[in-house]
Request: fold
Amino acid sequence: MKGRHLEENSDMVDREIACHKIASAYPDVVTLVEAFDNRDSIDNKSVHYVLELCSRGSLLKTCEKMAEKGLLISKDQFLKWAIDMAKVCVYIHETSFIIHRDLHAGNWLVRENGTLALCDFGCS
Ligand SMILES: Nc1ncnc2c1ncn2[C@@H]1O[C@H](COP(=O)(O)OP(=O)(O)OP(=O)(O)O)[C@@H](O)[C@H]1O
Ligand SMILES: [Mg+2]
Reply:
């Protein structure tokens, strides 16, 4: 579950939800199960997202943990991730004209099986 309290720009939140819902159809995007939109509420303006759990957390965290243990990412793993990342970006752009605009290691999640899932469509 991820939540946003909204002093944030409401149009950007609309775009985040719309883009994420569309992009969710692609396997390498974290599944958006539901967005609970309380922006109309008087005292608690917020949006909460229920997402597929990616149990290994972000790619950033995964790399930091490996570095702590003195481990390197293998060339094969690096290439696979890089190709998978490129494929997601091409797919969401070609099918829906979505540009993520905030690609960094904190916005790629790692599933239990090691595959990547793109998250955080807040700048899309
Ligand atoms: N579905 C998920 N499974 C596991 N971890 C997650 C999931 N979604 C988010 N996270 C963790 O939360 C972090 C932030 O998530 P996200 O990028 O979606 O939010 P954000 O908009 O960047 O949040 P903030 O504005 O607080 O930085 C990720 O880097 C990851 O560590
Ligand atoms: Mg983020």
User: Anything to note?
Assistant: The domain at 3-118 is CATH 1.10.510.10 (Transferase(Phosphotransferase); domain 1). Helices lie at 10-23, 59-68, 75-96. The chain is about 35% helix and 20% strand.
